[in-house]
Amino acid sequence: MFLLIYFSSGYVGLGVAGVLLVGVTALGKLTLQGKCRKCHPITRAAPEGLAERLRLVLERANLEGVEIYALEEYIPNAYSYDKNIVLSLGLFEILDDEEITAVVAHELGHIKNRDTLIFPLVAYLRVFMFLMPPLLLSMTWKFWTAIAGFALYLWFEVERSKFLRGREFKADDFALRLLDRPLSLKAALEELKYYEDLRAEVKNQTLPGIDPTIERPSKEERNYWRPSFLMFPTHPTYEERIIRIMNYINISS
Fold first, then answer.
1. What does pLDDT average to over the chain?
2. In CA terms, which of 22, 70, 85, 103 is 20 to 30 Å from 174?
């Protein structure tokens, strides 16, 4: 993209693109501040059995300074940022202690693999890549530059999808090595898949009724500005992940 900018508009274009990239990154970092306002340290409420499981998996991960929080949100969800892991209260409604530990192990994989740093950077680059084609057109008034820029953006979307899917598999692989019972990650994924299928069934029903508010986006999920258009899958399907887990167990045994 920067080569296209240079050949079409020279150093002036590079300067404008640099300012745009810095601005998008700064805006994204600002929106990451105070990301867990409705969170509480999980140690306050975790049963003794779960607390012990989490302590053991944290020790095995060999990561210092990791904190685990419970989020006041009743949609099952888990995510990580910096060295923090957030588990929604809804997750505790559908998973048992062993499955919760498996989800934590997966998020520890993201932290270990530095995905909490990489994922936001990829998101900032995505916004930058999307904004460049119209900016190129406004600077050069040459349609070929906008078309070339959009083609590069599409290429970025494809590669981004492959990259992020691969990182999810890598986090699963790390989690499986931490767990006493790797099948607990498979069980957690099956429960989450069942819940999502149930949500889809309720959403698509034709009978009148009170529509649950589970589809409302959580404010905690609005981490940074990210376009929702032209969405390529960034997560593998539950089936793909479960198959990989079963292959891992079969090879290990």
1. 84
2. 70
